Automatic annotation (TrEMBL):
This is Uncharacterized protein. It comes from Trifolium subterraneum. Gene3D superfamilies: Ribonuclease Inhibitor. It comes from the Eukaryota. SUPFAM superfamilies: RNI-like.
Length: 251
């Protein structure tokens, strides 16, 4: 069973127990930067950290010392301006309704090529993404070897995603679902979502055509304004992916 420490709606927070706590929730506790900076150094084993509705302006750099941290929730930290560091282990970062988060901070997070699922308020799809798809149009591409890609989508509605409503990839008519483990329903539009996707389902190989181009579509399953895709060139060959039908000859 996961060791947990949870406090909500408190102004005076007593010292937290140290390791081996894996789940920490400090919601609306008005924790100070110094308090959090010092305490995070004690939690080498924390895997999930909730700091919702706190009045932090900067996420302390000591967060990078939480080397096992998988999920960080900063929703409704309306004075938060900067997230200077995130642990390399982080899989989910949610910062919905963080109204003061700077554009440079959001851009830096979106430009990181780590395997982190991001939920950011009012962020723009980075310019280095492939041409954006407009509302209602699925991301589509052809590939010979499934590439390592980053998906980014800007939605007018905050994504209340859970395991019952995953995004899906359709390959040659076969449907595969993206599993993410994120379940934080919210309602504060618009927001941007960012996901690195690799060969996410071992059964995908059965749907692939041998020595031929395979057709793929990404369906997010909710309304969006723009979406984009970026191929990680250090992990994939651009010769194995096309955004126009390679079987149609151009004259």
């Amino acid at each position: 069973m996961m060791a947990q420490f949870s406090i909500q709606y408190r102004t005076n927070v007593s010292p937290m127990p140290s390791s081996p706590v894996e789940y920490i929730c400090l919601e609306n506790c008005k924790v100070s930067l110094d308090y959090l900076s010092d305490r995070l150094l004690l939690f080498a084993n924390v895997k999930e950290l909730h700091l919702t509705k706190n009045r932090l302006t900067v996420l302390p750099k000591s967060i990078k010392e939480c080397r096992l941290l998988l999920k960080l929730v900063l929703d409704d930290c309306k004075e938060l301006q900067e997230i200077q560091e995130i642990p390399p282990s982080l899989k989910i970062l949610s910062a919905l309704n963080c109204q003061s988060l700077t554009s440079s901070c959001k851009s830096k997070l979106l430009n990181q090529a780590g395997n982190t699922w991001l939920r950011l308020p009012r962020a723009k799809i980075p310019e280095w993404f492939h041409q954006p798809w407009l509302a209602g149009l699925p991301i589509s591409f052809w590939f010979r070897k499934f590439p390592t890609i980053i998906l980014c989508v800007s939605s007018p509605l905050t994504w209340a995603w859970d395991s019952r409503l995953p995004a899906r990839v359709i390959i040659n008519g076969n449907t595969f679902f993206i599993k993410h483990g994120l379940n934080i329903p919210r309602t504060s539009p618009p927001d941007t979502y960012h996901l690195l996707m690799e060969n996410f389902n071992g059964k995908m190989d059965n749907a692939l055509l041998v020595n031929k181009w395979n057709y793929a579509e990404v369906d997010f399953g909710f309304p969006f304004m723009y979406s984009g895709i970026h191929v990680l060139k250090d992990k994939s060959s651009m010769e194995d992916i096309q955004f126009t039908n390679p079987d149609i000859e151009l004259y």
